Structure formats: C-alpha cells, structure tokens
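So, can you check what follows?
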Amino acid sequence: MIFELPPTGTEQPPAFTTAAACQDWLATVPLANAVQAQSMLLRQFGLLRRYTLPHGERFAILEALRAPLADVQDDAAKKFAGKPLPLAPHEQAALETSLSLWFELALGYLRCFDEACDGVSTAYDELEKQRELCASDPKRAAQAALMAERTVAVFADWQLDLCRGGQLPDAAYWQKLHQILRAAEILGISTRKLSDSVHHGSTATSVLAAYAECCLLSTANVYELQARHLTWVARWARRWGSKLALLTAPPEDIRNRAVPLWVDLESDRPPSYQPRQASGGRWLETTELRKSLIARITLLDQGRSPVDLQLGDDVTQPAATLLLQRAQQRWCKGGATRRQERQPADEECSVITGLENVHFEFSGRVPFRAPTRSDSTLRREREEFETFGNHSQRHGDAGNGKSAAHVETWRVVDESASGLRLRRPLKEGARVGPGQVVAVKIGNGQYYVVGNVRWVLREGENSLVAGLQLFPGEAKPAAIRAPDSSGSHSVWHQAFVLPAIPALKESASLILPAGTFRLDRMIEVMSDQKIASRKLFRVLDRGIEFERCNYYD
C-alpha cells in the first residue's frame, strides 16, 4: 500500500460534504446487504479522498461513517475469515473490498492528522516545534491525539482482516504505523486519554493503546488460529492494549517482569523479541498485561467462567485457558519456543492434504470401505492378506476412479525433525487451511510422514507458504468406531495408528476424526485386519479435522 496523500480539489464532490449530509446519505444505504453497502461506501470514499474539506469537517464525516462501516465489514468478513487458501474468487473479492475500505478510512484519518500537524506529520524536526503548542493548547493536543488514535485504530481493523484472509501486513504498513506513533510521541500526545466508542465503548484509550493492539496482534500469530479463536484473541489484544507502556530503554531487571516486545520506530518491520542497535528502538513493557493474564488463567482453573472474567460471551473452556497461555507465551515470555531449530533447505517434496486423501494414499489408493465384524468376512480378508500381502496395494487404482492428482509438489524452505516450512505457487494445488491432516515425503524418502498444517499464508501475489507440524513415527491407516449415546456402535471412520517411540519418549497414539475424543471413551480400532478396543485418555494435538490421542490398551 502507498500512503501518499493525493492532491484534493472541488471538481468531483462526494454525495455529502458535511457530517449532517453524510447521516442523511447513510439512511439510503442498505447496510444489511454487505456487498451493496461496501460498493456504495467505496465509491464515496474514493471521491471524498480527493475532495477539499477542512480537516475538522472531514473528521466529522469519517466519524459518522466509521460505526456503520465497522458493522458492514464484520458481516463481510464472514465470507473469507478462516477459509482455506487460496481463497475462492468470491471470497477473494470480499477480502479485497474490505481491505480497500479500511485503506480509504485510514487514509482519511491520516489526512486529518497530517493537517492537524500543519502538514508535517512525518517531518520530525518540524514536529518538535509543535510540541510546545500542544503543551500550551489542550484543545489542539486533544484534537491531534484523537486523529492519530483513529488512524492507528483503523490500522488495527485492517490488520485483523488481513490475517483473517491469510495475509500479513507489508513493510509500508509497519513503516506508516511506526511513523504515526513517533509523531504522537514527539507531540507528547501518545498516552493522552481519549474516547473511542466504536472500539472501546465507555473505556478510555490512547494512541499508544491502539498501537499496542497492532503489536499484540502481530506477535500473537493469530493467523495460526481457527476463525472464532482468532476473534477472541483479537478482542483481548484490543481490550488490553492499554496495559502496555512504551520505554526508550530496556527494563534494568526483568527477573520479576515480563519480557518486553521491541519495535524500531524508524523501520518498516513488525515488533520482535530481539533488540537491535537502532535510534528508533523502543520497548513495549508487558508486565501489567502478564499480571492480568496470570490472574485470569488462575481463576479459570478455579472454575470461574470466561464471561465472569470479561473474556467474552462467546468464549468457552478449555479453549480459553489454552489461548490465554498461548498469548502469555507470545506477549510476555519472549515468544513460542521450538524443540529443534529449523535449518534452511531447498528441495522438492510430495504433499497430500486432508485426512481422507492421506488415508486414501496410505491404503494403496483404494477408497475407504467400512470394515465388518462378520467372522467369515474377516477370515477371508486375513487369508487374502496372508496370501497376497497388502490388499489395497494389490488392487492399486483399479476401479476407484482416482489417480495421483491428490499428491502435490511443494518446495521445502526450512526444516527440523518435527516441522517444515513449505512453499508452492498459489493456484497450483488444493486449498489448504490450518488444522488439516497432511502427509509429506521429502525427495526420495521411504515413506510419508503424517502431521498437520499449523498455518498457511499467501505470500506476495503468487505464492502460498505453510508451516507443518510432523508427528513422530510411521503412521498406518486404520478404521475406528465408537458407541453412540444409546450404547450402540456408530459407523466406521478413517483413522491412523502411530507407534510408540521410546527413544523420543513418545507413546503410541491414534489420529482420529475431530470430535471423537471423550475422556475414558472406549473405541474399536481396526488395523492390519485386526480389531482391538482402546480407551482414550488424553488429546495430544487437535485440528479442524482431527484429534491425536493417547490411549490405554
């Protein structure tokens, strides 16, 4: 995105040039129809951006538009939030329209802030001269702070929809965001308390709080989360951004403090955990946030409900505790830790995504058939297995109507014993989303390793990048069924058996369809033509289509 403010004139006016006229125009917009409303709003924003107005009147118009726009955008986000990538054409169109609207709104507020700074919002030497004016004129300071906060708050909305659509903010985004905070810092208005009813209701906020929200969203890696969990964490980042403080030097002693986030206000990079030598370096102190997170985690463990702790009416357990612990690690403890360091790589690999596709490949590309407990059938299948070996391999692709089209070629970017980062052309292959079962075979490997997709992002215009977690051991295809509520057995489903690996202290586990796990639930597992009963007792990993569980024999 380019944040240069275009020249303005009076040749093509929008449908309104005052806040009152804007309210009248909004009454004609079908806000319940997101597609139509977005189209009408986008046209007027395009005209408003190039129309000359006093910055006070422009600001009043933007304030009138902001709340209705936010509602429309929330409705539109349902079309692309949490969808596998690449997005379908209608999903991509909805995302691009939403991002364009956030851009226009941000650009409008940015123009207001720049004009409130006499056109020198990025000329830091000139801003130093205005600091005294803000100090001596509370009204001027309040106006500048309000315009800066609105700009940054819209950046947060924009960032959230980017992540919902499987993208990350680019360098221009971070550069402009840092510039706005730096300008507010110079003017002495970054922590000035103000009202933002759209984002915070009656709770006071500030420029720094809105900026901190963007940084918390970034370091939380919310793109790894399923859509509803992403919404929860984004809500918490917004609510708790005011708990962060901005420091020009690192805390002297962090033994009893949180590990701060680090930003460079003169860079175009997102926040990180590792400081560098930079004149624009700042530390975001998260100790107060850590106290709040620890208190809520403790109270949840004691049985308090998420609603009582102001986490949200839609938040449930045990996901709330897990997400708070995850947030604490990324916001207050220096980021997520890796068991093994990843090493750069550059080689092709074969990839299969989706539990059913992986099971199909592991079964010799024979469609799944529900097993039967008929003694005669089991006896015949065992005899065939002993005579011919793997029944599925013997039949190959015959009669199943499928081929190897489900096997894709990706490129390994980096790797470790338990994970991979892969890349492929955006539109060459199936859609991929977090929480899917995946199988990978690198180069001329002997067998596929099963794992799950941790995250997937669109990179640039033409690439898809995914992070995978690999499960230890060679998986075998299986079938499982569990008793239903009446005690009778349900239908059979695809599953996998993973062996115990004592050297890695890994016990045997099962990869089951999502929703199978219940503590101490008995299930039947058929593998290698044998049926055995297993009692489930712990979930090791969980995704949108699977649960990996330990079991008792």
Q: What stands out?
A: The longest helix spans residues 89-116. The CA atoms of residues 294 and 328 lie 8 Å apart.
